[in-house]
Write a structure and sequence with these properties.
Blueprint: E1 6-17, E2 20-32, E3 37-41, H1 48-55, E4 63-68, H2 78-88, E5 89-93, H3 104-109, H4 120-130, H5 146-158, E6 164-168, H6 176-191, E7 195-199, H7 203-208, E8 211-214
Parallel strand pairs: 3-7, 3-8, 5-6, 6-7
Antiparallel strand pairs: 1-2, 1-4
Amino acid sequence: MSEPILNCENLRKVFSENGTDVEAVAPINLCTEPGEFVSLFGPSGCGKSTLLLVAGGLLAPTSGNLLVCGHDPYALSASDRSAFRARHIGFLFQQFHLVPYLGVLDNVLAPTLAGSFPDAEQRARELLEQFQLSHRLTHVPSKLSTGEQQRVALVRAILRKPRILFADEPTGNLDKENSTLVLDYLNDFANDGGTVLMATHDPVALERSTRTVELGKD
């Protein structure tokens, strides 16, 4: 059996608000293998997005153990953790988080600021052509449709060939055509040996997963 790409053991996140502890992520055990497309579902507020941030090395857990590609990202310094994320992890969010004053190509190349990547621009141009965005290279996000913005965000997420993609409601703002395009790629990414962990309310997206995990269930 191959080594898990993601391994969460009793992973838990608690926030303190006005002296009161709020459990954002109840203790969870989750292990994902290469080739899996795993979806998290459950009611709003059950911790899906927070779990993605914790598992993705962006928000330290309160307790529990986490390994991503065999390493604990929170055992690293902040700069080393940033470099680790750049090498191994891709993020795709519902709100896209594109830099408003950068064109499409420069937005896609932004992750290379965390460390050099051979032939980054060539790969970026090839991916943008694959996603039918080669005619938009200099356009800023405000000049793009919602579907185009999500495709730019997807190209940015996969530019450095990550091992795992964390996707937070990636089809939430998209029409059927663009949703299908994004889900097709996530499925292909998993089929090629990567891992996808996606938070979603979309029943169509859930059907595309190889496994589903329900959060917020007693």
